[in-house]
Amino acid sequence: MTDSSFDELERRQSFRLDMEKELVDILWTDEQGQERTKKIACLDFARGGLKLDCDIALPTQTEVIINFKSANANNQKLHGKVLRCIKQDNGWYEIVLTLD
After folding, report:
1. In the chain, where does DSSP find H-type helix?
2. What is the number of structural domains in the chain?
3. Per-residue pLDDT tens for 26-71?
4. Which run of H or of E encompasses 7?
5. DSSP 3-state assignment of 75?
6. What is the CATH number of the domain that holds 37?
7. What are phi and psi for residue 9, nearest 5 degrees?
8. Contact at 8 Å (CB) between 67 and 79?
9. Is the pTM above the cut of 0.90?
10. Domain that holds residue 46
11. Which burial class, exposed, middle or buried, applies to 14 when counting CB atoms under 10 A from its CB (0-12, 13-18, 19+)?
């Protein structure tokens, strides 16, 4: 692979941190206006967003609050929006969030 072909494949503009499927809590409002929460695996974290692994689909543009280490007093909350939601061969969804 040449350097130019690598640049074409790599779309990220910032450093990425492999989260090794660390569990995070997400909070969003569904299409019926109900507030929902779910504990899901975070696959990657970068300055611009996150990639999550989830057993349900979230519509694009859905506003999401991500809570890291929710049981810890020093937890961290971030706000984002669903950029992509892609169904995988295993039936789960790869969800990509952009951070606000």
Report:
1. 3-9
2. 1
3. 999 999 999 999 999 999 888 888 999 999 999 999 999 999 876 6
4. helix 3-9
5. coil
6. 2.40.10.220
7. -80, -35
8. no
9. no
10. 15-99
11. exposed
